[in-house]
Write a structure and sequence with these properties.
alpha/beta, eight-stranded mixed β-sheet, six-stranded mixed β-sheet, 15 helices
Length: 546
């Protein structure tokens, strides 16, 4: 019963630490009950299969945490209008399994090498897992520990140096040191050690926060300019209206919204993810002939020196099967096509510029490890009204230049905004502000759209770039370079948000180095594995000599 109680306490602390409803300070002790549970089972329990008990209890903890923090995925719907159980069960159960496997590896290593080496292994393997979770095809970094402070930008200004992944390292170190302090106290009951260790914990928590507040109060970077941005929020039902309304009607409503709110000079009109064309997609080989895109150019002729940026659904045709990209699929007519979730920049009398989303949502926009899983799962992807084939991507980021001013926009599409090191590549391409084009309407009025907005605040801190976020049903927002939301809209409103976006140049330390803390932990992980293997071989040799 004691071990179950510790597991449930850990699950509760992890859950109540999460944005946008939680208090992140609980995250500093959230993993401690789990570490205590594992240690007590390993050293003092009489279970016959201790590893299985540790695995089962840790899995229970992580299932509860995942279900509470990402259970909003249940708001997504199947094409028939029913809620998609697969949309929530698969991420919750599989993600929890992955976390449990990480914890199980720590349990095995600690039993083999002892508590102190085991705790170093715990930090390194957790950090390696978070880094891995940012890059593989089943990527789901929603619960990376550094994300927990996204609603408290004043306390994480130092993310411009080590990023949100550095925040994860900070949280892990504190949890481990608190557990270590508990073990020292249990072993010796020495008040002096308790006072010293408690002081170290207070410093570990407090110093980064103090540094952050100092950085916040002394932020004085000078912008190179400013642009007027109008973020369009059409409030289009993604399950019905988007795929049932005529594309021209949808576009006319979008342009009318833009016209209605053009009460001053607008440098950028920014529309949400896949705002064009509604149903279907636009061929990229015929961009210049597209009625929809030419309608936008006609609109812009009434607004000289304005640019229109929008998310669109697009595709390319291939007439034969030679040199096909791996994401291409064959149509009923025999031709091959590759589909994209794209962003375009439209300027009158110029070619349409396009960028293809580089981080795709597993199960919705990409069939992860298709060659391995499709024979097992068939076409069992989550269908949210779009394609059930994997989309094509751009391997490099793009920054759209403005011929009329100093603006250089990063076209960040929805899910991409939760990837710190990935987003820095836009800055390296010269982007001096971010335009996030997103559609968070799939999940309804849940924590999903609030959390996605909140995570974007960390990207502004990491790179010191302002963000103009256009969301289909909201929340559209202007986020400054300190991660603060200066203006925003209400979810569910059909509206537009006008903001003056400052343009910043230069690169932060994090922009230049990325997730270097994670890379250090990867080397540490490799060393600890080598140390384990070396000791195992040495033991074998010594036993033979004996």
């Amino acid at each position: 019963m004691k071990h179950l109680l510790l597991t449930l306490i850990a699950a509760m602390l992890l859950s109540v630490s999460w944005p946008t409803y939680g208090v992140p300070f609980f995250i500093f002790i959230a993993l401690v009950p789990l570490l205590v549970m594992e240690h007590d089972i390993s050293k003092f329990s009489k279970y016959s299969r201790k590893s299985w008990v540790v695995f089962g209890l840790s899995y229970l903890c992580f299932v509860i945490w995942n279900a509470v923090t990402t259970g909003w995925l249940y708001g997504s719907k199947n094409p028939d209008g029913s809620h998609s159980m697969m949309a929530v069960l698969f991420p919750v159960l599989i993600n929890s399994l992955l976390y449990s496997l990480v914890f199980q590896c720590y349990h095995w290593y600690k039993n083999a090498q002892g508590t102190y080496w085991g705790l170093a292994f715990f930090v390194s393997i957790w950090m390696c897992f978070e880094k891995f979770h940012l890059n593989w095809e089943l990527t789901w970094p929603w619960l990376n520990l550094g994300n927990s402070f996204s609603e408290y930008p004043k306390l994480i200004q130092w993310y411009d140096t080590i990023g949100a992944t550095g925040g994860s390292f900070w949280i892990l170190i504190i949890n481990v040191f608190i557990f270590y302090t508990i073990r020292i106290w249990q072993a010796g009951r020495k008040r002096k050690s308790l006072i010293i260790n408690s002081s170290v914990i207070a410093l570990l928590i407090g110093i980064p926060m103090i540094i952050s507040i100092v950085k916040y109060n002394n932020f004085n970077e000078k912008p190179i300019g400013e642009v007027n941005v109008l973020m369009l929020q059409p409030e289009l039902d993604p399950y019905n209206e988007k795929y049932q309304k005529d594309s021209i009607t949808i576009q006319n409503e979008l342009l009318s919204l833009a016209e209605e709110h053009s009460t001053t000079k607008i440098d950028y009109y920014i529309a949400p993810e896949t705002a064009i064309p509604g149903r279907g997609s636009i061929s990229e080989t015929a961009f210049e002939k597209s009625e929809l895109l030419n309608n936008v150019k006609s609109f812009l002729t009434k607004h000289p020196q304005s640019i229109f940026a929008s998310g669109i659904s697009s595709h390319k045709y291939y007439l034969n099967s030679e040199n096909l990209p791996k994401e291409a699929y064959q149509t009923s007519s025999g031709t091959w096509v590759e589909s994209y979730n794209s962003a375009v920049q439209i300027i009158p009398n110029q070619k349409v510029e396009v960028y293809h989303k580089g981080k795709l949502v597993p199960g919705v926009e990409i069939f992860p490890y298709m060659s391995y899983l499709k024979p097992i799962l068939g076409d069992a992807m989550i269908n949210l009204g779009g394609t059930v084939a994997s989309l094509g991507i751009d391997k490099e980021r793009v920054a759209f230049s403005n011929p009329y001013n100093k603006g250089k926009m990063a076209p960040i599409i929805c899910y991409e905004s939760i990837y710190g090191e990935f987003v820095t590549d836009y800055v390296k391409k010269g982007a001096n502000f971010f335009a996030i084009m997103t559609n968070d309407s799939w999940w309804g009025v849940t924590e999903g759209h609030r959390q996605l907005l909140s995570y974007a605040r960390m990207r502004s801190i990491e790179t010191r770039r302002e963000i103009a976020r256009a969301a289909n049903s909201g929340i559209s927002a202007h986020i400054n370079a300190l991660g603060e939301i200066e203006e925003d809209t209400l979810y569910g409103d059909k509206t537009a948000l006008f903001s003056k976006i400052k343009l910043y140049e230069g690169e932060t330390f994090y922009t230049r180095t990325g997730d270097f803390i994670s890379r250090i932990c990867m080397f540490a992980f490799g060393f600890l594995l080598f140390y384990l293997i070396f000791n195992w071989i040495k033991t074998k040799i010594d036993s033979k000599k004996a």
